[in-house]
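thought: fold this chain, then report.
action: predict
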Amino acid sequence: MPTARLDKVSLSFGLKPLLDNVDLQIRKAERVCLLGRNGEGKSSLLQLIAGTIVPDSGEVWVRPGAKVASLAQEVSPSSDESVLDVVMGGTSGGGIDGDWQAALQVDQVISRLELDRDAPMSALSGGWRRRVMLGRALVSEPDLLLLDEPTNHLDIEAITWLEDMMIEFAGALLFISHDRAFVRRLATRIVELDRGQLRAWPGTYDDYVLQKRAALEVEAKHAALFDKKLAQEEVWIRKGVQARRTRNEGRVRALEQLRIQRRERRERIGQVDVRVQEAGPSGKLVFEAVDVTMTFGATPIIKDFSARIMRGDRIGIIGPNGCGKSTLIKLLVGELTPTAGTIRRGTSLMPAYFDQQREQLDPSKSIMDNVTGGSGETITIDGQARHVSSYLRDFLFPPERLHAPVSMLSGGERNRLLLARLFAKPSNLLVMDEPTNDLDADTLDLLEEMVAEYAGTLLLVSHDRAFLDNVVQ
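observation:
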């Protein structure tokens, strides 16, 4: 018997259905990875199974008595609740006065996740808050666990621990992730949501990538043949009286069916066109740090750090959450001044800096103004004036959304907008702090290809092991 099942489920927000009459079964001990482009409805599908939203039609069935726990994509808002209170909220008792077995389970999860049980949530970074919410989901020992991008904001050590725990997990797991190393290790089955339809892909993640590429090529050929036939029939009917003769009524009806099929055909969401404008080369020396120390209060985050970074170096920076990776980046680019030591910066540096918190985006300003700085409707790309509407279409922002405030965007959309803002200017130094969070697999692949081919100097902070392997030296 399955743990959960979707039967002929449909769900719409707006004109096009997110789910169009879909079926899905999830069984005990399965680890199902749900893939799909940003905005396709993956998170909504998890919410349907969790019972937080209801379908327009069809049935969402969960085995009677089965516990369902979930980790939402967004980190919980900071509050004055303690870590212990938040994690304990995941138990059936819902409080510290629950039974002793629940309290023991909470203690074990807090210990394994290395959480500070007494810390207020408001004092924690995004990565640590995410760990707390993961602990909350795990303590209920659910029969079905729903995880939406669980590796976002986790460091490599925590991701590895989560992988080990999920492999030992006895229940069913349905998870959304674009962390390719995570998916490769965990998934026993891949299911893709594409234009309202669910499709199961046999084999591993790498098998899926190859099969999907082949399927899209076949789909494109069929669409081209269909469009050619439709165009020929439209030419025929415009010739006039012949089409209205009785013996041609069947052909006329067939043309109407072709027209209906073409109107109903859902095109695949376009791909981001990620291109970086490269400036002339910088000086040979990019950064030289000598005995750099950085303290906040009495705590040294970085101590006696020395390094020389030369033009063309491609450096990955890894480490646990809170160890000072972002601080190191900000010291090198001059956003922070070291407590002791010196940092020398080379000549002719033109940096493009992708910050983890997306602080370069103004949430109150429009999508367009965040790229142009409010200075009109054109920008200069590769020495040529280009309308910002055309440029932002490359990053999948349609013209009708350009005046929407950034505060309305999802995490993935904000990342795409920050990429658009960065690559609107030439650079010879690319500094990226966790650029892959919230990006779908297709956009991630294109970004990886662009970064791998970048001729300038690269400094990359990332917990995405596959991305690091493919772009840094």
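thought: worth noting. The chain has a mean pLDDT of 86.
final: tokens above.
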